[in-house]
Amino acid sequence: MRFFPARRLFSVFSNDLAIDLGTANTVVYVRHKGIVLDEPTVVAVKANSNQVLAAGKAAKEMLGKTPESIVACRPMRDGVIANFELTESMLRHFIRVVHDDRRTLVRPRMIVGVPSGITQVERRAIEDTAKQAGAREVYTIMEPMAAAIGAGLQVQDPSGSMIIDIGGGTTEVAVITLKDVVFCRSVRVGGDSMDQAIIQYVKRKYNLLIGERTAERIKIEVGSAMLGSSKETVSVKGRDLVTGVPKTITLTSPEVNEALLETIASIIDVVRVTLENTPPELSSDLVDTGIVMAGGGSLLRGLDRLISKETGLPVRVADNPLYCVVNGAGKVLEELDFFKDALMK
């Protein structure tokens, strides 16, 4: 029988993880394997306990439809933990899913993407949650840095790169050079804010109450940052606030655009502030390299063209924008020595 040294044996059975613990989705990257899990950041547990009944897509289907004995909720808000215990239960469930039975006793290292505007208390909560869920070591990396690496930007070069990462709970804009962030601004506005804006617009204009999932569908189907020549429509079902009975209305793309104007303006404002605070030598680099957009919010139609129009710079959406953060964190995990300077201190 062949025996391995303890450390070597540990490395054989340890599958280190990179996690994008997002407000809307949690994505897990396993070292040497790539992305193995992409699930909504939703968990369903028994009331008054942390026994997980469902997590991810199955739990999302339960949102707004559970009896009193079951609690289905999103434990992350604005990119940070809103419910410590539920986040831990959800993470532990996801880790069990990605690790097979023979590895359940092994505690992996984890790299977790966090918002740049995170406080020390919020960062400690994420690190503690990851350790309670089974990690032996936890590293954190700012999401815009991870997104830039995942989008293929040469963050190690002495030239400026600009990334806009629009997630579910936060929008982060950063200028990066030499594996460090020169200036970054984060605002707690993102895909969820767009959904809430649509909910409030429909409520105000039509006296119709709709849920988050319906608002998200409206945003995806007819949402746009710029008015187009055609008027697309979508059928919307909800509860009439006057009569209390179900009702169906038709929303047009210009109406959805009107609902999203304030949220889009907040995103453009943070881009402007970042550009105004960028050193002139790096600003000149951006004329050539332009701005790269990542995150699910970057998929809103016309947003890249609108930002380009407002800034005068070329803007492009990264390949696979939904996975830029986790792919970047995964690349750091694969080449930890090279990217060590990119981690949060």
Structure description:
α3 (84-98) packs across α4, α5 (143-150) crosses α11 (324-334) and α8 (253-276) crosses α10. The strands form 5 sheets. Strands 3-2-1-9-10 form a 5-stranded mixed sheet, sandwiched between helices. The protein has a 5-stranded mixed sheet with strand order 13-12-11-17-18, with helices on both faces. A 3-stranded antiparallel sheet has the order 5-4-6. The protein starts with 5 loop residues before the first helix and ends in a 6-residue tail after the last helix. It is α+β, with helices and mostly antiparallel strands and 345 residues long. β1 (17-21) and β2 form a beta hairpin. The protein is built from 12 helices and 18 strands. The protein folds into 2 domains: 6-145 and 326-342, Nucleotidyltransferase, domain 5; 158-317, ATPase, nucleotide binding domain (Nucleotidyltransferase, domain 5), CATH 3.30.420.
In summary, what is this structure?
39% of the residues lie in helices and 26% in strands.
| Beta-strand segment tally | 18
CATH class wording of the largest domain? Alpha Beta
Supply the helix-strand structural class: alpha+beta
SSE run: HEEEEEHEEEHEHEHEEEHEHEEHHEHEHH
Please name the defining characteristics of this protein.
Nucleotidyltransferase, domain 5, 39% helix, 345 residues, five-stranded mixed beta sheet, alpha+beta, disordered N terminus, 2 domains, single chain
Layout of strands and helices, then pairs:
Elements: H1 6-13, E1 17-21, E2 25-30, E3 34-40, E4 43-46, E5 52-55, H2 57-60, E6 70-73, E7 76-77, E8 80-81, H3 84-98, E9 109-114, H4 120-132, E10 137-142, H5 143-150, E11 161-166, E12 171-177, E13 180-187, H6 191-206, E14 208-209, H7 212-222, E15 233-240, E16 246-252, H8 253-276, H9 280-289, E17 291-294, H10 303-311, E18 315-317, H11 324-334, H12 336-339
Parallel strand pairs: 1-9, 9-10, 11-17, 17-18
Antiparallel strand pairs: 1-2, 2-3, 4-5, 4-6, 7-8, 11-12, 12-13, 14-15, 15-16
